[in-house]
Here is the input.
Amino acid sequence: MRRSRLSATLAAFVLALSGLAAGTAGPAGAANLLANPGFEAGSLSGWTCANATTVSTPVHGGGYALAGTPVGADYAQCSQTVSVQPNTTYTVSAWVRGNPVYLGITGGASTWSGNSGAYNQLSLTFTTANQTSAQLYLHGWYGAGTYYADDVVLDGPGGSTPGTPGAPGTPATGGVTNSSIALSWGAAAGTVTGYRVYEGSTVVATTTGTSATIGGLAACTTHSYAVAAYNSAGESPKTTTTSATTTGCVDTGLPKHALIGYQHASFANGSGYIRMADVPAAWDIIDLAFGEPTSVTSGDIRFNRCPATECPNVESDADFTAAIKAKQAQGKKVLISIGGQNGQVQLTTTAARDKFVSSVSAIIDKYGLNGLDVDFEGHSLSLNAGDTDFRNPTTPVIVNLISALKSLKAKYGAGFVLTMAPETFFVQVGYQFYGGSGAGDARTGAYLPVIHALRDSLTVLHVQDYNSGPVMGLDNQYHNMGGAEFHIAMTDMLKAGFSVANTGQFFPGLRPDQIAIGLPAAVSAGNGYTSPADVQTAVNCLVKGSGCGSYTLRGGTSPALRGLMTWSINWDKYYNWEFQNSHEPFLNSLP
Here is the structure.
């Protein structure tokens, strides 16, 4: 959340792109798998491109080359998807010149070259996980002018061993209990010995039929499954994943679809101060902004209420506390939000971790709050080089934060409300780049290990779909903030889950009731304001599957989507309650 309209996220995103380096593993084979790799067809045959064409000059070899010219927010991307073999290393290269040009594998390694008057070669290697296809891409950078590329190579063994079965039908969820999930799928073509059900890279069931029940699961946990057929010749490609959640979730006391907002409790921010008693009843979760540390690494969090010099109408502590209790009596949840734009928190030591727990507990106890919102921004979270498994992080600031949040949850019990408000850079950008790889910006994807470790305790994740650069979605296209499609694509990633860059790991999706969309209340509240009509178009797509435009939901519909979050209640009042008045009745009308 931002006290000003400006954000460093876009600049950081550019740094992440530009800083990625080539891999170091050796090549896997000796065959260029690309069609029309030198554009010698005189066309873009075999490629999927935007704002690109072939040219006869300048070329590196032969008679033609690719020319891409970014227009507006478009990168002029050209891509091609090829069949590959799982767990195999491939070499990629291209000759490029002109303005900045990027070469990479979607969800994997990337490299780039700056302005150059002559052709120079980019190269990298990548190793497949349990996948049977890979997408190579080339693109420029918006506003940077035309780039050229020629003689592109993706070198290694092709996929699909002759005689293997076709892919089965996408699995569908059947009966779900506290400890099991039933699946069924369509039969695969060809000779089939049996089927393997995968959760990530792990086989969790093997069967000769087209159904299976996965047991031994924990209550209220989300799992993502894919299925592959096999015979003596090998294994088919996996199906797309299907997610399901076991029953037995604790009732949080929230409505099915909630309105969540931040109250400027320690500053006015130009929008004016709102007394707690004057916050309208439409708001189901009220986040007090912000608790901040005495120093970046102290872990000592203080919540200082807005001084009368800045907020002349500020109420007394006694009236503030009484108003909180009145809200709670109405079923509302009031949380302390830690961090924000200025509150950098780095729990570098166990002493800082323990101080965080005790100081946050003191704030919760003093005001009788329902829980905690984690709004770490800027440089609070980053990953050390080599910390590449989000499931088992080793970076101290990550490990200590996870431990602190688990301690708070254990102290206050099942009714403790835990929410998080990361920026897209720390979550969805992890699909392309993961900071622990040691290249680029170490903050990319840095929230993923925290979210994953707390997924069974997390009440709501409301990623800030604003103050963001373009982000690649599961359709492998870049999406830009400010319209319905951005919110659809970003939220679908949280529901469906996604592969984490080139780590070989899969981040499982969350339950729909754990997901809300984060939005600025008005144009002054943050970059990426979205009109109420576009917001509701996005929600209707996510909840009902209608009005999705050209985007196909990978995670399926989410009738239990938790709702909408905004920065902020104060800015909404300043703009005559447009957000509240538009969205509260809309959310209440949803099934």
User: Anything to note?
Assistant: Confidence is low (pLDDT under 50) at residues 4-30. The CA atoms of residues 435 and 444 lie 5 Å apart.
